[in-house]
Design goal:
Blueprint: H1 3-24, H2 29-40, E1 51-59, E2 62-66, E3 70-72, E4 74-82, E5 88-95, H3 101-110, E6 120-125, E7 134-141, E8 144-153, E9 156-167
Parallel strand pairs: 1-4, 3-9
Antiparallel strand pairs: 1-2, 4-7, 5-6, 5-8, 8-9
């Protein structure tokens, strides 16, 4: 038997058991059980179970950010909805200390070479997302400031969405 299939057959029942125990728990152990279940299934969950949901919806020349502006550091689940007529992508940047989402928007407006300033670090980007499709990206993020953008691929143009500050 393939080792990967064997591992999946073992991990799945364990994850289901952990979820069942979490659902039945009436103590503070619920968060611990949910975190163990997430780790058993391979999904990213920050310590303490913090999950931040962010949605970027790209429509025409508008990129709408739906999510908190500030939260405790943890796992960010970024959903990108491409409602344009062509391919698009979402990009999430970490900003060096002292920079804000507003600074990133200003830099976007001023750029002429198509590049990003050195104080914006690409944290993640989707592969090209066809028109009408949705992608979900999950990553554990440290405290700091972040900026999210939608990018039209033809012609390549970025549209500011929103900013997120993660705290300790």
């Amino acid at each position: 038997m393939n080792a990967r299939i064997s591992t999946l057959r073992t991990a799945l029942p364990l994850a289901l058991c952990a979820l069942a125990l979490a659902a039945c728990s009436t103590t503070d152990d619920t968060a611990d059980a949910a975190s163990a279940a997430a780790q058993a299934t391979g999904s990213a969950m920050a310590e303490g179970g913090t999950r931040i949901a962010v949605t970027l919806t790209f429509e025409g020349e508008t990129c709408t950010y739906d999510g908190p502006s500030e939260a405790a550091a943890g796992t960010v689940e970024l959903t990108f909805v491409n409602n344009t007529e062509g391919y698009g992508t979402a990009e999430l940047f970490g900003l060096d200390e002292g920079y804000s989402h507003e600074d990133a928007v200003a830099a976007l407006a001023e750029r002429t070479d198509g590049g990003w300033p050195s104080w914006m670090r690409e944290i993640g980007a989707y592969d090209l997302t066809p028109a009408g499709e949705t992608n979900v990206w999950t990553k554990d993020l440290d405290p700091g400031a972040y900026a999210a953008f939608c990018v039209d691929t033809s012609p390549k143009e970025a549209f500011a969405a929103g900013g997120l500050t993660l705290t300790e």
